[in-house]
Amino acid sequence: MKRWLTVAIIFGLLVGSTSLVQAQGPTVEAGFYNQNIEMFFLNDVDLSNPGNSPLLFWARIHNDSVERRVILSLQIMSENYGVLAQGESRPFVLKPDTLIELDNRKLAQGNSPFELADYSLNQDNLKKLQDAIMSTGLLPSDHYSFILEIRDVKDPSIQTETDINLDITNPTVIELFSPGAPVGSSELPQLYTQQPQFVWNSNAESFTIKICEKMPSNSSPEGVMQNVPRYKGEVKGTSFLYPASGAYPLEEGKTYYWQVSSNVQTSNGPHKLQSEIWGFKIAKQEAPEKQLLQNQMQILSENPVFQDLFQDGGQLEGCHPTGVAFLNGQPISLEDIQLFLRKIQSGQIKVIRIEIE
Hints:
Layout: E1 27-32, E2 57-62, E3 68-78, E4 82-88, E5 92-94, E6 99-103, E7 120-121, H1 123-129, E8 142-152, E9 159-168, E10 175-178, E11 181-182, E12 190-191, E13 197-201, E14 206-213, H2 221-224, E15 231-236, E16 239-241, E17 255-266, E18 269-274, E19 278-282, H3 288-301, H4 307-310, E20 325-327, E21 330-332, H5 334-346
Parallel strand pairs: 12-19
Antiparallel strand pairs: 1-2, 2-6, 3-4, 3-5, 3-8, 4-7, 8-9, 10-13, 11-19, 13-16, 14-15, 14-17, 17-18, 17-19, 20-21
Helix pairs in contact: 3-5
């Protein structure tokens, strides 16, 4: 998902043009210090305690060649819930050709000409948010706007504003799907492949996957995850196929634990999300030819086209490969089977109909 920052300077009515128009009077521009924020806290819209507030946004006020008495105002809005907070300063003087640099902390500091003296939270709209706000104090996923305006006290028609925006997704969970099961819940499943497909669900964007071997000396899942990883790497998306090369191979008869994490950008800095720890065993091989075919059938069974056949009650439930395969009535080699299955997985061959004989 793209996060974007829009700065729009408005004076009077601009129609039919995307070019900037030099307006009479002061102008204001603003931006977020971190444009990639994914999590947003309720305290961030409360400017009554500037010492504990993160540096969230900056603003610059440029005056023209005329000395003016102006008022600065701020309004914070949620697309779904309306105005969350608003306030304005007392009138202060802008000298000719002045550049003033501000941030959200300075707007909250007392004894400053730029202080938003009557700034307050909109309690009516915040009540609507109470069920949506998480126990962590996070605001719900939404589109948030910070609108800063400067207006001339003597001539209110001379005003300018800027609108900066955030799309907040608040990723909070990483849910593992396969392979294996949560450690400690039951006996760990056995896998008949040394290249399992790891699958999870989350609305975060990027992840780190870590896979560690369980050693006899380990007494806890957390201890296992402190071992030197068999594999650790960055992943875009929510699935990962264990590589055939460039990583320590997963060995038969051994137990492995795995975990997925994500560094999420918040208004207070990075926040680490972590999944549960899951585990699985790599089954000991039988005859090499039979084991290889089992591995391929395991991968095939995870393909959505064939899943119903292998699930409980499916037509292939309880079936075991014999090690002999036929294509169009003719026996084929294991290399041919591998090639055929790869073409199905890659989409080069499309399965139209399945018949069980």
